[in-house]
Amino acid sequence: MIPPLIDVGSSAPWSVLPPGIHDATLDEVAAHFATTPHRQWLFGGFLRVVDALVLANCASVYLDGSFTTAKPHPGDFDGCWDHTNMDLTQLDPVLKTFANKREAQKKKYLGEMFPAFGEGAPGLTFLEFFQVEKFSGEPKGILRISLASSKGATP
After folding, report:
1. What local confidence, expressed as pLDDT, does residue 150 receive?
2. Which of 39, 10, 26 is nearest to 135 (CA)?
């Protein structure tokens, strides 16, 4: 379930998810965040990346970025994927490409995805890094979506 967004301080420009990892379904994410044509377009890219991760046996994905905030017109989505027990030989090579500020990922999927337990900042995994609001430094939440039943997520 996706909790209501909260204000974490004056230096954070938009409300964010409260601290913690919040379990959600793709349907819940769509209902809560894909609320404008632009957000629906971004969510379509996220569904495509989910399909690619499912093909490589990914168990769960974490969604973050301005897409999961109250920002009226987010530029993209950000997130990370649990690479535990994945078949990385089946992973779309674009998801292994981080060059040029993830340009290939943004072009194909409209957002950026990283391995959850890779280093996102000195001393922090991406999973930890995404739980810090970038303007205020305050803790914030992210969404975890189980992919066990997400075969064929793209409509």
Report:
1. 56
2. 10
What is the token pair recorded at 79? 């997130």
What domain range includes position 130? Answer: 20-146
Q: Please report whether residue 84 resides in a domain.
A: yes
Structure tokens belonging to residue 85: 């027990």
pLDDT level of residue 155 (50, 70, 90 thresholds): very low
Helix (H) or strand (E) holding 62: strand 60-64
CA–CA gap between residue 79 and residue 141 (Å, rounded): 12
**Tokens 């690619």 sit on residue:** 52
Kindly tell me the number of DSSP H helices and DSSP E strands found in the chain. 4, 7
Furthest CA-CA distance within the chain: 45
Across-strand partners of 81? Answer: 61, 115
| 151/21 Cα distance (integer angstroms) | 23
1 lies in a domain?
no
Domains identified in the chain, total number: 1
Residue 8 placed within a domain: no
Is 118:128 a contact under the CB 8 Å cutoff? no
